[in-house]
Structure formats: C-alpha cells, structure tokens
Fold this sequence. Notes:
The chain is built from 5 helices and 19 strands. It is α+β, with helices and mostly antiparallel strands. It has a single domain, classed as Sandwich (Jelly Rolls), CATH 2.60.120.200.
Amino acid sequence: xxxxxxxxxxxxxxxxxxxxxxxxxxxxxxxxxxxxxxxxxxxxxxxxxxxxxxxxxxxxxxxxxxxxxxxxxxxxxxxxxxxxxxxxxxxxxxxxxxxxxxxxxxxxxxxxxxxxxxxxxxxxxxxxxxxxxxxxxxxxxxxxxxxxxxxxxxxxxxxxxxxxxxxxxxxxxxxxxxxxxxxxxxxxxxxxxxxxxxxxxxxxxxxxxxxxxxxxxxxxxxxxxxxxxxxxxxxxxxxxxxxxxxxxxxxxxxxxxxxxxxxxxxxxxxxxx
Length: 273
C-alpha cells in the first residue's frame, strides 16, 4: 500500500520489520550476554532465560548466587556456561565436564561411573553458603549431586537417597538428613549463620538444623560426584541435572522464590518434574 500524496510508502513487511527491530522489547543485558556466549538460538529458550534472570533479580536472589547453570541448549558447550558470568574461563566458574556425559534438551546426564563436572568454585564465606540441584532422575544409591571436602575437615555437599535419607551439609563436619521418597525435584542446602542450616525440597523447608560451621573446604566443588581431596573423586551420580546453583546463603523466602523461578523455567522448556 502506498500514499503518494504525502510521499510515504508503507508495506506490511516494513511495519513488521520496524516492530521487530526498533520497538520490540530487548532482553535483560545479563540474559543476553549468556545467550550470546552460549549461542542459544531458540526463541523459547531465549525467552525462558530472560524471564528467569528478571525473576531472580526481582526477588533479590541474583546477587546472592555466584554460579547458575541452566543446562540449556542441549550440548556440552551450551551447558558449561555460568549464567552469572558467561566467560569461558575457570575464574568465571565455567563447567569442565569430565568422563561420560549425555547432553540433551533435558539437561546433562552423567553415566554414574566416571562423570563429573568441575565448577572451580569454592565457598566464599564460612557462615553463608547455598547449593541447589534439579534432578530429573528417580534412582537410589550413594551418589553425590554436589560434593567437596577435605578429609575430616569441613564438607559441603548434597546427597540424595531414595527410601532412605536426603543429606545436606554446608561448611561443616557433619551433615543433616531428612526422610525422602523420590530423587526427582529441586534440592537446596543453605546456611545463613554459623549455626543455622536448612534443607529444602521443591521450595519447602524439609529440615532446619543447628550444626555449626567449621570452615570452608579447600577443594573445588564438583557436580554429580564427591571430591574428598583434589585428586580423589568417588560416589558418581547417574541423575540428570537440569539446573544447578552455587552462592551465599538464602533465607526461607529467597529459597522458595528460587524454586518458583527455576520451576517456571523448566515448565517453559517442557522438562519440569
């Protein structure tokens, strides 16, 4: 369609281009930085990442998390990036996948034999720490979803067991445990003071503990196994990881809101449990 009287030429394609290019809302800068670094091209995935970042910031969680692994994009390359700092470096807590892994649109699946992912992260505060893991696999066994320790010194881990106990520790020498019947879902261990540590499952408090912190493990945290010293890895997990976080302590409201944001992300991607 044209309007020669005013010297203007307008077409549906031109209007669409203007709307999509100049006036379409842009993504959050942190979300876009991750999308660019990981090479995420799917519009649904891009939208899910953007919504996730906006939600974490709105609920004052973003600044408390030091590493966020959305496990989005379906490949080892896309899964390795830290949403908080998507640089391809150890200092940015970019994951290094070791051993046998299967990467898909549902997340990263370790083989349970020799697979783990090095986060290069060590807790920054003795009395403030959190770690969370979103499992899509329902299995039983002595597996660690997160694990870092140093002999008889302080340990930090998530250990999920079926028909038995779900354990968690944060910078302490003894873990906390609660009955558990399924290894799927979102698990969170958080310490907010020297003698307050809590276990959450799917946003709800499972256990409030008073085990005192004793120090910070000196080894890098790893995903899907247990590191008892720099060179000793054991208790390999076979559970698919669809999300993981590391950071400082989260209170009850922040812990619940973190689950809500992650579950919304998973639902958008069609892989929620």
